[in-house]
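Course exercise 7: structure representation. Students receive a sequence record and must write out the corresponding structure in token form. The form below is the worked example handed out in class, using Glucose-1-phosphate thymidylyltransferase (330 residues). Read each field label carefully; the graders check that inputs and outputs are placed in the correct fields and that the protein name is recorded exactly as given.

STUDENT ID: A-19
EXERCISE PROTEIN: Glucose-1-phosphate thymidylyltransferase
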Amino acid sequence: MKAIIPVAGAGTKLRPHTYTQPKALIPIAGKTVLSIIVEQLQEAGVQDFIFITGYLGEKIQDYIKETFPTINSTFVNQGERQGLGHAILLTKDAVQHDEVMIVLGDTICEYNIKEVLQSNVSMLAVKKVDDPRNFGVAEVDEESLIHKVVEKPHIPKSNMALVGIYKIIETNMLFDCLEANFREGVKNRDEYSLTDALQCMIEKGTTFQSFKVLNWFDCGNKDSLLESNATLLKKFGTSISPDHRFENVIIVEPVSIGKNCEIRNSIVGPNVAVGDNTTINYSIIKESIIGSYADLFDIVLEESLIGSDTEVKGETRSLNIGDNTEIDLG
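STUDENT ANSWER:
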């Protein structure tokens, strides 16, 4: 079993943060989106990983090699983004006929991974959504078998969205369908979609079993990222590095505070994640994510996303500030 994790997207909905940091490395609940995905798969016994990189791909490689030195990692570059189907097709030589678990690099879900990995049929993760038009959609029968998948349908016949987790046994057929779609120019919204290849497999007789995820944490934009951060902090619990300097500080749990942070005369929490080597003074921070090496002084922040190497002074309520920024609101 090999895991394929596509992380080539530019993350436009999380700008300005993704100008300098891949979306998969955005901090959340004291970790990163990518580290949560890799740790889940590792704990279930997966050791072979294929990362599809592109935009800021060298940062992904450096992060994986430093954070997960024991896994077998292969990096495949998607130089021109032509959709998820095209990205998966690029991994054909690395897969070498093995079964695969495809997990999108911005998809954090709670589900029984070991049960999915041990299944003797291919499986697709689904979750009921209010408006499925922006997702791949699965039409599922009473036995949880999938008989049709459609990418972003204008008139959905189902509200069961594909959440971005795919366990594929018949990888030879997957790549045959991907190659056929690429050869014939089968596109959806000007991209080669993985969903179209899955439908091709269904038409050729592949059985897909659906499975429902317990929770699906959306990390696609600022508001959903902050909401997911709060939920995961409640799940993981408070984590404060012992290597810190606090003076006259009130902590309202849950929070995650990284290494070598200096916090004075401040209130931090609830639902705040602070990166390493950050300084906070005379401030109130809640419901926010603060990057590493940030410097916050005399500030009131709520529902804010502050990048790394950022200096912010003065009073405000809600900010979305990228890396390497200095702002004086006094």
